[in-house]
Amino acid sequence: ADKNKEQQQSSITAKFKEAVSMKRKLVDKYDFQSMLNYQIAQITSAETTLRSANLTILHHMIVNVLPLLDLREIEWLFTSIIDILDVPTILAMMAGESTLIRARLSYTFRAGIFSKIPESMQLECVRILMNYISKASSSSEVGVNMGLVFALNELSHFVYLLGESSAALIETIEGPALALTRNANFEIRTSAVYLLLSMSTVAPVIGATVFRDALAQAKAQSKQILSDSVADDTDPRRKSSKEMERQKRTIVLHGQIIVL
Q1: 183: helix, coil or strand?
Q2: How far is CA 253 from CA 177, 201, 211, in A?
Q3: Do 196 and 177 touch, CB atoms closer than 8 A?
Q4: Which among 8, 74, 77, 154 is least buried, having the fewest CB atoms inside 10 angstroms?
């Protein structure tokens, strides 16, 4: 009986060691992504009591693991953090609380990531943000894209800090930034203009070109808006079409005025 008991205990011990070994392998491979996703779930949950604490944990987790990440993992990290801002529970928050979350995540990007990596990796981070902005800009989803606003603001900061080192990337950034000054969302337009301002600080020649083009666009849009008379048109469909065109031109005009 004692022998059977010993064999049974030995079998249980062996299975336990195997389970622990397997768990360790799984943890070694998936620990960072699993823990990050867990922290994000805590931040985006409806419960607000511990949200600030979870944001702090997220920050220190990223700081500690950052030296171990390769470029692909950093891109995954960037996307995961930015996407927090477009989770429905975050979008539904009061303005003050959502602004606090954006500020804390911005601090993580600037003090927790960007300031702790070499310049070569900083330039790669600029490319990662540009890829995110390009994908978000082409999205057909309706509504405010707060992730896009955040990415534009962080890219603006990165470009300003890199200074002349980012000059080679300025032409790549210029086109998408100019296009977003025509976006229907006010925050996206404004953030795109801030990015253009950072670019102009780094490359004044491009800044001068942007200024001249914005002035010409503003004049052209103003002239067209004043010349289009919607009220005098009696055809309802034509009148509606003109009104939509007028609204589009007004948005473009507003974007150019912010640039100026």
Answers
A1: coil
A2: 15, 23, 13
A3: yes
A4: 8
Check residue 230 and report its DSSP letter. Answer: S
> Can you state the angle between helices 146-162 and 71-82, rounded to 10 degrees?
130
Name the residue with tokens 């011990």: 13
CA separation for the pair 114, 103 (Å, rounded): 15
Ranges 83-97, 188-202, 223-237: which has the least confidence: 223-237
DSSP characters over 72-127: HHHHHHHHHHHGGGGSHHHHTS-HHHHHHHHHHHHHIIIIIIGGGS-HHHHHHHHH
Single pTM value for the model: 0.76
pLDDT digits (tens, 9 = 90+) for 10-35: 665 665 455 445 444 444 545 778 88
Query: End-to-end CA distance of the chain, in Å?
Result: 91
pLDDT of residue 178: 83
For tokens 């985006």, the residue is 44
